[in-house]
Amino acid sequence: MAGSRIGHLFSVTTCGESHGPALGAIVEGCPAGLPLSEADLQRDLDRRRPGQSRFTTQRQEADRVRILSGLFEGVTTGTPIGLLIENSDQRSRDYRDIQHLFRPGHADYTYWHKYGIRDYRGGGRSSARETAMRVAAGGIAKRLLAHWGVEVRAALIAMGEVEIDRKRWDWQEVENNPFFAPDAAMVSHFTTLLEEVRQQGDSVGALLEVEINGVPVGWGEPVFDRLDADLAKAMMSINAVKGVEIGDGMAAARARGSQWVDEMVADSTQNNGVAFLSNRAGGILGGISSGQSIILRLAVKPTSSIMVPRRTVDIHGQDQIIQTRGRHDPCVGIRAVPVAEAMAALVLADHALRARLSRL
Amino acid sequence: MAGSRIGHLFSVTTCGESHGPALGAIVEGCPAGLPLSEADLQRDLDRRRPGQSRFTTQRQEADRVRILSGLFEGVTTGTPIGLLIENSDQRSRDYRDIQHLFRPGHADYTYWHKYGIRDYRGGGRSSARETAMRVAAGGIAKRLLAHWGVEVRAALIAMGEVEIDRKRWDWQEVENNPFFAPDAAMVSHFTTLLEEVRQQGDSVGALLEVEINGVPVGWGEPVFDRLDADLAKAMMSINAVKGVEIGDGMAAARARGSQWVDEMVADSTQNNGVAFLSNRAGGILGGISSGQSIILRLAVKPTSSIMVPRRTVDIHGQDQIIQTRGRHDPCVGIRAVPVAEAMAALVLADHALRARLSRL
Amino acid sequence: MAGSRIGHLFSVTTCGESHGPALGAIVEGCPAGLPLSEADLQRDLDRRRPGQSRFTTQRQEADRVRILSGLFEGVTTGTPIGLLIENSDQRSRDYRDIQHLFRPGHADYTYWHKYGIRDYRGGGRSSARETAMRVAAGGIAKRLLAHWGVEVRAALIAMGEVEIDRKRWDWQEVENNPFFAPDAAMVSHFTTLLEEVRQQGDSVGALLEVEINGVPVGWGEPVFDRLDADLAKAMMSINAVKGVEIGDGMAAARARGSQWVDEMVADSTQNNGVAFLSNRAGGILGGISSGQSIILRLAVKPTSSIMVPRRTVDIHGQDQIIQTRGRHDPCVGIRAVPVAEAMAALVLADHALRARLSRL
Amino acid sequence: MAGSRIGHLFSVTTCGESHGPALGAIVEGCPAGLPLSEADLQRDLDRRRPGQSRFTTQRQEADRVRILSGLFEGVTTGTPIGLLIENSDQRSRDYRDIQHLFRPGHADYTYWHKYGIRDYRGGGRSSARETAMRVAAGGIAKRLLAHWGVEVRAALIAMGEVEIDRKRWDWQEVENNPFFAPDAAMVSHFTTLLEEVRQQGDSVGALLEVEINGVPVGWGEPVFDRLDADLAKAMMSINAVKGVEIGDGMAAARARGSQWVDEMVADSTQNNGVAFLSNRAGGILGGISSGQSIILRLAVKPTSSIMVPRRTVDIHGQDQIIQTRGRHDPCVGIRAVPVAEAMAALVLADHALRARLSRL
Hints:
- The longest helix of chain A is centred in the C-terminal third of the chain and has 23 residues, at 332-354.
- Chain A has a single domain (5-247, 282-355), classed as 4-Layer Sandwich (Chorismate synthase, AroC fold).
- Chain A is 25% helix and 21% strand.
- Chain A has helices at residues 38-48, 108-115, 131-147, 171-174, 187-199, 227-236, 257-260, 332-354, and strands at residues 5-6, 11-15, 22-28, 65-67, 71-72, 75-76, 81-86, 151-159, 162-163, 206-213, 241-246, 264-266, 274-276, 284-285, 288-289, 294-300, 310-313, 319-322.
- Chains in contact: A-B, A-C, A-D, B-C, B-D, C-D.
- At the A-B interface, strand 1, helix 2, helix 6, strand 11 and helix 7 of A face strand 1, helix 2, helix 6, strand 11 and helix 7 of B.
C-alpha cells in the first residue's frame, strides 16, 4: 500500500535507499520447480550497472545479488525468494553541499512535503538506484517466462533528435554497443551526441521500445487490469518515464478506423490457425494478449541532474542556484533498457499465473 | 484479481455486460460524512450517455443510476455504496449475424480463447458499455475531491488530423459543443470531419487532455504506485486508449535537460511559498504531486466497428468478410471524455486517502 | 480495504444495510464454464431466511436473489457475477424509540465513534441482515466446489447447556429440524430450551460445527494465509461469533504430544496411498489441507437484543434503560449455520484457485 | 498471494527457511517520523530466542537483526524497512536420517504434495523459525503502537492440565520466569511438569492470553475485516495454534443473553464519558474496538516432534517408524508468547492506520 510492491500472484516488494546499507526484495509467487541461480540474475544487473562506459555514471557498485531463500538444491521451492544487494559505494559526502536544496526535476521537494523527513543522500528512496532490485527480481520473472517460451527484450531507438532506422533493426546488435541500440549504423551518431551533451554538462532524453514474443492468446484481464494497462503502469513507474504507448500508440489519435484495424485470415501454419495481417494494436486486444508480439514504447526524460546552473529554493524557502556535481548519466534512458525489460517481465509473469484462473 | 476492481483505499468493483440485465458497482472506502445524491452522479452519466447527438451511437439508454446503500439521510455513512443501472435497450438481435465472427480490433478473439465461452451480444463485458459504471463511481470520487478543493476535467483536443488551438483554450466552451472541445473556433471543423467519416462508414481517433487542479503537494507513493503510474494504468484501461503521456510526455525523449527542467523560486503568494517557473513535468515529481496542475493526455484509437468490409475469421477458423451494422460512434474518443475524468478522479480519491498515511 | 471484501482469487464484495433499499454483492473470479442459476443460490437463502419457524425473528423477507451479470445461457462467463436482493420489510419505525440509545452488546456505540454518523435502523450495516449476501455468494462457491467434489456442511451441536450426542450424528437429520441439529433425539430438548428462553425474553448461545469433505492435499498457503487461519478469520467475521477452533481445538492446550499426533500408515485404498489413524489436527497440517475431513467449530454468543431491561447510555452520554422490542432471534446461532457454511465455502473456493499456482 | 504477507496499510512480507542462508522481511507502511533502532527489535527477539533455558530447544542462534533501509538518522523515513537475520546454526545433518520421512503432525506431507519439492532441513519454510521475523517486524509495530499509547502483552496461563490462578495475575512476574507466566506461585508446578514431559521424550500444549490496552474506540472494519476476525487469523497463523477466542470466547455458546451483555453507564472519568460494567465481549463490538481492553486467548498444541516412536510413511509410500532426535521444545507454547504479541501488534498497527480513513 505504500508503493513498494508490484504484482498480485507473482509479486515483488522492494526496499532500500541510494546510500543506505543495502537494497532488498522479496519475490512471492514464483512456482516451485524452476531451476534458478544467482548467476541468472547477475547478467541483467551487470547490463544495468553504472560505471561501465563513459556514458553512464561513474559510481562504482559491484551490485552482487545474493539469494537468501526460496531455493533448495538449485530449484525454487515455491516459497518467497529473498534478494539482497549490499551498497558498497556510498559517497554521501557528494550530497552534503546540496542537503538543504531541492533539486529541480527531482523528488526532493515532493518527498519533503510528503514525509516531513529528508534523506538527502542521492535522493534516498527516490533514486534510480532502487531499479537495481527491479532488475534482479525481473531476472526471476524472465527465467520463469523463458521456461514457458516467452522472451522479453528492449532497445533504445532514439536519443534526443537522433533516431535509429527501423529497417536496419538487428536484435544481435543491441548487446554490442553501450546504448542498447539495434542499429549499428547509428552508434557513432549516438556517441557524438552524448559527447556533446556531456561536454555541455547537459543531458538528453531517449525513446525505448520493448518487444515481447511467445505470449499465448489469453493473458490479461478485462476492464481495469488489462495487460496494456498493467504494462503502462509498470513502465510509467520507472524513474524519468513520461509517456507510454502500445502498438501504434499516440498515432492512433490521428488515424481512421479503415486504416487502423488488424485484419485476420485463416492460416494453418499459425498456433491457433489464425494470422493477423498487421499489428497496429501491439499484440493486445481488449486488454488481453492476441498471440502477436507485444510492442510498447516509453519516453525517458533527460535527467535533471545537470551541471548547468538552475534556479531553485532550499528547505527554508530561500532562493538558491543549484549546479549538480555528483556522478550522473548524461542519458538515463540507456540504463533504463534493462529496467524496462525487467518491469515488462514482472507484469507478464504475474499475468501468466492469472491466466490459469479463467476456466474451470 | 479478475480485473474488475480498481483502487485500494477508495476502490470500485464493477460488474455487468453490454446486453445483460444490469450494470453494478460497489464503491468501498468513501469516508463518512459526504453529502451525496443520485443526481450528483447522473450529470456525468448524461454527458457520457449515447444517443445525444448524431455523432454518438443511437443506442437508447436512460442510464438512470440507483444508489443501493451507504447513504443515510443524504450523507455517506462510510459503508460501501452500491450502484445499479438497469439495461433497457438490449437489442441483441443486432448481433445475431455476427455471433460466430471475430470482429477485428475487438476483444472477441481474445475473450474466446481466454474463457472458452462467448457472449456475442455487443461484446459482453468487453463492451464500452461498462464505462457507464466507471462514470457513476467516478462521480462519487469527484464529489469527494470537490470537498477537498480538487477539480478534475477533460477535453478533446484533436480528432484525426484536426487539432484545437491551445491559445484559444476555454473550459467554458467544453460543455457547449458535442465534442467536449475547448476551442469554439474548431467546432465546425470537427463537425465537418465527423460528417465525412460517418458518410464513409469509417471512424476516427482522438486526443484527450485531462487537467487536475487543487491537488496539494504529497499525493502519490514512491517506486511502483507513483501517481503518474496509477494514472497511466487508469487511462490505458479505458477501451480504445493506446497511449498516455504526462506533462510534456513523449516529447521528453527529444529534449535536453537544460530545457526540460522546471525551475523553482520563492513566492510568498503560493501555498508552500514556492513557485515553479514552468510545468513540463505535468505536476508530478518522483511519482508524487508537486502542487502544480496535473496534466495528462491520452490517444483514443478509431473504433474498429465500421461499415467498411474487412477480412476476418469465424470461431470455426474459416475466412469471412465482416461489415459492422450495429449502432456505433464514429469517434469513440468523444464519449471517452467523461470516462477519462472519472478514471482520473478514482485514482486521485484513492491517493488522497493514501496520503493520510505517510506521517505519524 | 474498508472491510466489505473477502477472498483474493475468488472474491466477494458486499454492500447493503438492514433497512436500506437493497443488499448487493459482486463475486469476482468464478471461472468460466460453471452451470449456475438463481435457484442454486435460493436454496441456502431460504435456509437462512428469517420468519420460518417460531424460533427465528418474525421479520418477513422474501430474500429473492437476482443475478445481474456474469452468466450467459446458464453458464458462468468468467466475468464478475452481480447479485441483488431488494429489501422488502423495512419496518424502521421499530427503531425510532431507540434511535438515540446505544444497544449494549451491539455495534451502535463503536460505529458511532468510528463514523460520526448513525444509521439507527436495525443496526444498518452492522446488522446480521448483511449475512444474506454472504449466503448468496457462498452459494456460488458451493456450486463451484461441488464441481470439484468438495462438500461443505454445518450443524448446530449445542445450545446453551444442551448438547447433541456425537454418537447419534446424522447429517440427514440436519435438514429435518428447525435447529440444523444432527441428532433427532435432542430436537425436543432444544425446543423446550428455546421456548423457555423466549418466554423469559432472553437469548441463548450456540456451538456450531463445520465439516468439509473432498478437499485434496495441498490447499492453503504457508505462514500467514494458512487455510486454518483464513477459516478462523471467516468464522470470526460472522456476527456474534466469539471463538473458533480447528480439529481438537482448544483442548490441544491440555494434551501431550504422544496422545495428540495423527499417525500415518500406507493404505493403497486411499487417494495418495496414505491413511491417517486419527484426525486431531482437523484436516490441516502446517496450514495446508491434508486430504482428511476439515473440521472446525465456532461459538455464537446469545444475541444482546433481549427484552430484559439493561443499563445503557444515549448518544448524549446520559444514563438510560433499554429494552429491545424488535423482532429478534432467541438463538442467532441457528441461522448462523448456513452462514458458516457459506463462509467456509468462500474460503475454500479461494484456496482452490490459489492451489493452482504452486507449481510450474 | 503466496501466503507470506500480512497487513494492508502496515504490512509485512517475510522470507526464509529454517536452514537457509537467512531470514528476511520488508515492513511497508510504517509512517515517517518514528524513532527506531535495531535494539528496539532485539529485545523481543531475545525473548523468543531458543537455547535460553533448558525448556526450549538447544539450537543456538544469535538472532541478530539488521535494519537495511527505511531509517535515516535514527528515525523512520516512511519508506520500506528491510530486516535481515542471518542463520548461523544450520545443523541440517540432524535431518539427514529423516529426509525421506513425513513427520506426523508436521507440514512435511502437505508441502510435499503442494510443491512436489522437499526442503527436509528442519521443515524449511514450515519451521517455527520463520516466527523470528514475525517478532522482529512485530517489534516495529509495537514501537509504533507505543507512540500512540497502545500496549500489547501476552502470558502463558496454562500448560497441559496446570493452570495459573487469575486472582494472582501479575504482569511484572511474566518476565521473571522462563514460562512467561503471570503467577509466581505456579512457576514451580510448570517446572515440574516440563521436567517430567522432557524426561518422557514427550511434549505438552499451552494456553496463552493476549491483552491489548490503550486502543481507542473505532479501530476495526465492518463485515469481513473485523478487528477480532483479523486477530483470529493472525493468531491461527502461528505454528501449532488450534483455537482462538475473544473475550469470554467459547463459553459464550453456553450463556444466556441476560448474563452475557456488557452494560454501559455514564462515567465522566472515562475517555468518552462512558464506562462498561463488564468486558465479556473482550473489547470488540461489531468487529470494532470499544475502548475497553482487548482480550484474546489461543491454544497451542503440543509439538509433534517427540522422542516417542510413532508410525508414519516415507515419500515412497512405505510404512516407517519415526522418532525425533533433533533439538526441540517440550512446550512450544512458551516461545509462542512473544510471537503472539508480535502478531497482535501487527494487526493493531494495520488497523490503527485504517482507522484514519473512516471520516472526511
